[in-house]
From TrEMBL:
One of its GO terms (molecular function) is protein serine/threonine kinase activity. Residues 38-51 have a biased composition (Low complexity). Residues 1-62 are annotated as: Disordered. Residues 27-37 have a biased composition (Basic and acidic residues). Its EC number is 2.7.11.1. This is non-specific serine/threonine protein kinase. The keyword Zinc-finger does not apply.
Length: 458
């Protein structure tokens, strides 16, 4: 492997290679992308399975021996993408059946931004079925509360009052419609997974409360970013836990593929675990899209988890979720963000340092490739977030010395410190990661193939 030969040396800032997953605040990341996406949308005013049989559940009890403590919940922001076209799912009129009649406006029940002013102790839902007792957080799209389910008659009795999580969508028409679409996707996935074995969060019911769409979910404990922060800050989780989580996420991805749905926002924040941290569920389908209705936008998926084909403007499909899960697994194992680029251009730079230069055929076909490569297909590293003052960087086809996954995770020095079995497992993990992070989406491993990979099969 040779070090990058740079005609003008403009590597990404050294600090970019070392970003702790625990320090990452997704809301900052999102704001930048939102602004860019809005610009992009204004510019483009006009507007892609097979099942797999796998054993359930690895035993990951006792993997997290630390006591839990109240952790800080990362604040997140989300870009809402609502297509004008319908996706075969009947979308009710937002203003009908208790929808946001005052869409865009606020009422006494709402704050200035259309969030419902939740009062702890309040009972919401048909017959006051849900007794709200805790706030779980606020996102761009909704606020999430925890409530007791008092049953259909709203009376609740003793043992039969399970906790649920309710996502109360902001009172805004586009968000209401996005919520309806999220419900349709969740219902489709649940129909294909009757036994609830594919690790996608279950929607219990939904209703409208004072103009707000409310989605009632099974209750889970925390998301994977919080898990890493609490149990693996800066060092990551052990390989056994990573293996179990990888297995479950891939089962989820296989289901998405089967359903023809792309999640399009997979990252540690959008994967929840139960109290025992043994089972995970993929959540937040607010950006999910039918594979046949994917738009070309360079800002799809949260930036650190964004696949190169998104940035390059190539046709996208479910493979973008595999890439995002690859980035997520690296983060779980190391406690560090794999590609912490501050722009799409820096993302491409970091990706190429780790994976080698983007193949010329992809550059040629990518609609946005001209923003990052010159006419000789040489990479242009931007000094600023814009393409201005960019410098040509001649990248080798192989990874930059020390940046490839093997050097990072399974160098001879690292392997020497492990027993034989652990060394073999680590190597298998790195091999699988490499396959999930193939730059060419056509060569990227599918979830079904990944589930048969030595790392998971062993
Ligand atoms: N079923 C659940 N059980 C427990 N907590 C949940 C559940 N669903 C969501 N949460 C919590 O609420 C957070 C936000 O949920 P979600 O991402 O679905 O909402 P959102 O409004 O789309 O958020 P954002 O705009 O930040 O992406 C999750 O990261 C998690 O911490």
């Amino acid at each position: 492997m040779t070090k990058a030969e740079t005609s003008i040396a403009v590597p990404p800032p050294a600090s970019l290679h070392e970003v702790s997953a625990a320090d990452y605040d997704p809301s900052v990341d999102r704001k930048v992308d939102e602004a860019r996406e809005q610009q992009q949308q204004q510019r483009d005013a006009a507007p892609p399975a097979t099942e797999v049989e796998v054993d359930e559940e690895d035993d990951i009890d006792d993997m997290f021996s630390l006591d839990t403590e109240a952790g800080e919940k990362p604040k997140k922001k989300k870009t809402i993408r609502v297509k004008k076209t319908k996706n075969g799912v009947a979308l009710p009129d937002a203003t009908a059946a208790g929808g946001p009649a005052h869409a865009g406006l606020t009422s006494n029940w709402d704050d200035d931004e259309g969030y419902y002013r939740i009062v702890l102790g309040e009972r919401i839902g048909p017959k006051g079925r849900f007794h709200v007792f805790a706030n779980l957080g606020k996102g761009m799209f909704s606020e999430v509360v925890r409530a007791k389910d008092l049953g259909e008659d709203g009376k609740g009795s003793g043992d039969s009052t399970p906790d649920v999580a309710i996502k109360i969508v902001r009172s805004q028409e586009t968000m209401y419609k996005a919520g309806i679409k999220e419900i349709a996707h969740l219902q489709k996935l649940a129909r294909l997974d009757v036994d609830d074995k594919r690790h996608v969060v279950r929607l219990v019911s939904h209703f409208t409360h004072r103009g707000h769409l409310c989605m009632v979910f099974e209750n889970l404990a925390m998301n994977l970013r919080e898990v890493v922060k609490r149990f693996g800050k800066d060092v990551g989780l052990n390989l056994k836990a990573v293996k179990a989580y990888a297995h479950q996420m891939l089962l989820g991805l296989a289901l998405f593929r089967k359903a023809g749905i792309v999640h399009a926002d997979l990252k540690p924040d959008n994967v929840l675990v139960n109290e025992a941290k043994t089972t995970l569920k993929i959540c937040d389908l607010g950006s999910a899209v039918d594979v046949n209705e994917m738009d070309l936008t360079p800002y799809l998926v949260s930036r650190f988890y964004r696949a190169p084909e998104v940035i390059l403007g190539l046709p996208c499909d479910a493979s973008i979720d595999t890439w995002a899960v690859g980035c997520t697994l690296y983060e779980l194992y190391t406690g560090r963000i794999l590609f912490p680029g501050r722009s799409n251009n820096q993302m491409l730079h970091l990706i190429q340092e780790t994976k080698g230069k983007v193949p010329t055929k992809l550059i040629r076909k990518g609609q946005f490739a001209h923003l990052h490569f010159d006419e000789t297909n040489t990479f242009l590293a931007h000094a600023a977030p814009t393409a201005a003052n960019s410098a040509r960087v001649v990248l080798p086809t192989s990874p930059v010395n020390g940046q490839d996954l093997k050097s990072r995770l399974a160098s001879p020095q690292v392997l020497r410190g492990l027993d034989e079995q652990e060394a073999r497992r680590t190597q298998a993990f790195v091999e699988l990661l490499g396959r999930m992070l193939e730059v060419d989406p056509a060569k990227r491993i599918t979830p079904q193939e990944a589930l048969r990979h030595a790392f998971l099969a062993a």
